[in-house]
Amino acid sequence: MKDLSPKSLGEIRMTDAERDKRRDLIRAPRPRIASTIVLTHGPRDNPRILMGQRSKKHDFMPSVYVFPGGRVDRGDSYVDYTGELSPRTQTIMEAAFTPRKARAVVLASVRETYEETSLLLGQTGQTMRNHRDPSWDAFRHAGLKPDLDGIEVFGRAITPPHRHKRFDAWFFIKHLETPELPQIADSAELLNVGWFTFDEIQALELQRATQMMLKVLEQYLSYDRPPAHIFFSHAKHGKILTDSFPNI
Question: What's the CATH number where 205 sits?
Fold first, then answer.
């Protein structure tokens, strides 16, 4: 594994507003379950990666470039879908969640990808169930079901307690085999959405957590066969720990 110590990743980047919000809290907030997906396209050793810049109006990590993602919603547990999780990803996810919740965490990354970049990760299917949840209207209108095939989990990171917002974020990857780069668009959540190589990403403004997960991603892409565990960053007794999940 590459060096992922706090020293190797530089200083924590926080705005004055973020520090003020954290000081107003009596205790560290409880992490919310979140889901992030890295979409790659092109050669495995130098792919293009979908990222966008968070609006400067955000009160959590403003202006930095991130992968598509966000909180897991209740409706993600009930939406109709196609495809299945790989045995590896299913085993890892179900070490933390029920089978339904495990799928919901992955499906949330598919939904967030559309909401933030206009990219639909779906397959043609019959009419979707759960028609009352507007979060998935775009898929229904396009005659698609969100697709789980090809999505693999590669990391997990829990926001340290010094932040005023905290997430238990799960990181997934899916390689797109389309002949051309899929069409994408900016949104209210992400600006300057684009496909970037690893070298191009180094010139972008990044948060330390994103830098960390990019190193984890590079390590993951180097495997001929992914391991049965994932990188896991979390805090314990005031220290940032980097180990594996499930524990090995």
Answer: 3.90.79.10
Q: Answer yes or no: are the C-beta atoms of 228 and 245 closer than 8 Å.
A: no
Number of domains in the chain: 1
Answer yes or no: are the C-beta atoms of 175 and 156 closer than 8 Å: no
Among the residue ranges 38-47, 74-83, 119-128, 218-227, the one predicted with the least confidence is 119-128
Contacts of 101 by beta carbon, 8 Å cutoff, 6+ apart:
77
Task: Summarize the chain as % helix, strand, coil (round to 5).
Answer: 30, 30, 45
Does residue 155 contact residue 211 with C-beta atoms inside 8 Å?
A: no
Distance linking the first and last C-alpha atoms of the chain: 15
- CA-CA distances (angstroms) from residue 215 to 1, 96, 208? 9, 24, 11
Encoded amino acid at 150, one letter: G
Question: Token digits for 61?
Answer: 């990590």
Domain of residue 141: give its range: 6-245
User: Looking at this protein, which amino acid is placed at residue 34?
Assistant: A
* DSSP symbol at 82: B
- What is the secondary structure of 133-161 as a DSSP string? -GGGHHHHHTTEEEB-TT-EEEEEEEPPT
| Cα–Cα distance, 248 to 246 (Å, whole number) | 6
Q: Does residue 1 belong to any structural domain of this protein?
A: no
pLDDT score at 235: 81
